[in-house]
Specification:
heterodimer; A: 122 residues; alpha/beta; 30% strand; globular; B: 136 residues; alpha+beta
Chain lengths: 122, 136
């Protein structure tokens, strides 16, 4: 199964990576290259949309953690949304989630981003 | 019934292994969770052998044997590399903040958590890793 990665802009500085298919040891370098490219630009927030993701292994989780680590250095954050239960379970087992923000829907994410913007205006 | 697949010790083989698993395990009698967990465990073990176990060899094959009975799926993963027991890898240290945590050992930790039994033996110059996942 191949990996699908699509990039879109949610709002200025906030990017969405829609990741679908299989994020495994064979395909994770594709996502890694995409993330590294995004990190070169200015990004305060990176949202992984995992709705279409069917499979993830530790190689895939490494890329998400790498993104989290690099963005945190720049004062940004990684967010995740639409995780299927089997994907969430893998993150749970290696306790990779406490530092990340997870949303179950676009509405939830929008609320969060609106609040984030409000607080940055103050 | 036993089903065996033989694969080049290369990360690229994962795609073929995925097909092999879909063909032989992805059926109505197995839950999606069981299939997902097995696929994950097999990929982690395979990747681990490719990365660490076969460094001394130019060409090597890894064989995967599946056996399903009423209670469980049994998988045997064999290679003829130097003696290497991946189960000895240290588990990730969860007390260290994620940013500083070394990411090695994560795959094998997942295997141990997701499977009902995992064991290693060395037999006639082969490494044999056996995993078992209960069906119900």
């Amino acid at each position: 199964m191949a990996l699908l990665v699509k990039r879109s802009v949610k709002s200025p500085g906030i990017l969405i990576l829609t990741v679908g298919g299989s994020l495994d040891a064979n395909t994770s370098s594709q996502l890694e290259a995409e993330v590294n490219d995004l990190l070169k630009g200015l990004a305060r927030g990176l949202i992984f949309d995992f709705e279409l993701l069917e499979f993830i292994s530790s190689a895939g989780i490494r890329v998400v953690l790498m993104a989290q680590k690099e963005l945190k250095k720049k004062g940004g954050a990684v967010m995740m949304m639409n995780m299927q239960p089997q994907i969430q379970k893998v993150f749970d087992i290696i306790k990779a989630l406490p530092d990340a923000t997870i949303f179950s829907s676009v509405e939830e994410l929008d609320d969060y981003l609106a609040k984030m913007q409000e607080s940055s205006r103050r | 019934m036993k089903l065996t697949g033989e694969y080049e010790a290369h990360i690229k083989s994962l795609e073929k292994i995925g097909d092999f698993l879909v063909r032989n395990l992805d059926s109505d009698s197995l839950s999606k969770t069981v299939f997902f967990d097995l696929k994950l465990a097999i990929e982690e073990i395979f990747t681990n052998i490719v990365k660490y176990g076969l460094q001394d060899q130019q060409v090597a094959k890894i064989t995967i044997t599946l056996q399903v009975d009423d209670e469980a799926v049994h998988v045997e993963i064999c290679d003829s590399g130097i003696a290497f027991n991946p189960l000895n890898a240290a588990a990730p240290d969860f007390y260290i903040p994620l940013e500083e945590r070394k990411l090695g050992g994560m795959g094998i930790f997942l295997v141990k958590q997701l499977m009902d039994n995992v064991s290693y033996r060395r037999d006639e110059n082969r490494n044999i890793l056996t995993i078992k996942k209960n069906i119900c």
